[in-house]
TrEMBL record:
The gene is Myof_1. The keyword Lipoprotein does not apply. One of its GO terms (cellular component) is membrane. The keyword Membrane applies. It comes from Fregata magnificens. It comes from the Eukaryota. Its main location: membrane. It is found in: Membrane. This is MYOF protein. GO terms for biological process: membrane fusion; plasma membrane organization.
Length: 217
């Protein structure tokens, strides 16, 4: 995708969508302010960089399928999949290419990272306040990708949802769930590609930055 040079930019988002015919299955958004930098305003400041992203998996979310909904409980959006995406920006004249195949060396590079690791996610819900009034019973769901999604039949069931609760009036203008001394817990176990080589480098850089700030700040 080629962008004409416009400074300052007239938009800050790149919106991507997965389509099935004319139906939108899922969407994702890249914010230019998060994947680029104009650099420091000072004459000898830090140089900036053009928009770049990945290669990394980008999750897509969309409306829940009708078959996955249960009465008066599940609404909103759900995880629909992910795309391995790389975005780079180059100055110059477009060469007219709109579609290209994935290079064999890129496929071989991805194949090396296919070994998977298991990950666990646990959440403790301490309170649910300022809940709108309504006759429906409420519950919370904890999910990681499609793991933990009660409407996704491709993954094993998990203890990812809280018990149903009836909101009570707080005496002012909102409602709350009466959890009191017993807090619900949800947990999800998932399996993903081993991308520790990226996390290790990022965590190391962040640790160095924190150390420099604490010692020289």
């Amino acid at each position: 995708v080629f962008f004409s040079p416009q400074l300052p930019p007239i938009c800050d988002e790149i919106q991507l969508a997965i389509l099935s015919g004319s139906k939108v299955l899922g969407t994702a958004t890249l914010h230019l302010s998060q994947i680029s930098s104009a650099g420091a305003e000072l004459e000898e400041g830090t140089p900036g960089f053009l928009p770049c992203f990945g290669p990394s998996f980008l999750p897509f979310y969309g409306p829940r399928p009708d078959s996955a909904r249960t009465p008066s409980t599940d609404t909103g959006v759900a995880y629909q999949g992910r795309v391995l995406l790389e975005l780079s920006t180059h100055m110059g004249t477009p060469d007219g290419r709109q579609r290209d195949t994935i290079a064999p060396e890129d496929i071989a590079r991805v194949q090396r990272h296919l070994p998977r690791r298991r990950f666990g996610l646990c959440g403790v819900f301490y309170s649910a306040t300022m809940v709108p009034a309504g006759p429906e019973l409420l519950r919370f769901e904890l999910s990681l990708g499609n793991y933990g999604d009660t409407g996704d039949v491709t993954c094993k069931p998990a203890a990812s949802i809280t018990p149903h609760g009836c909101p009570l009036f707080d005496g002012n203008r909102y409602h709350y769930l009466p959890w009191y001394g017993e807090k619900p817990v949800a947990a999800v176990t998932s399996s993903w590609e081993d991308a520790g080589h990226r996390w290790d480098a990022l965590n190391l850089l962040r640790a160095v930055c924190r150390h420099l700030v604490s010692t020289h700040g």
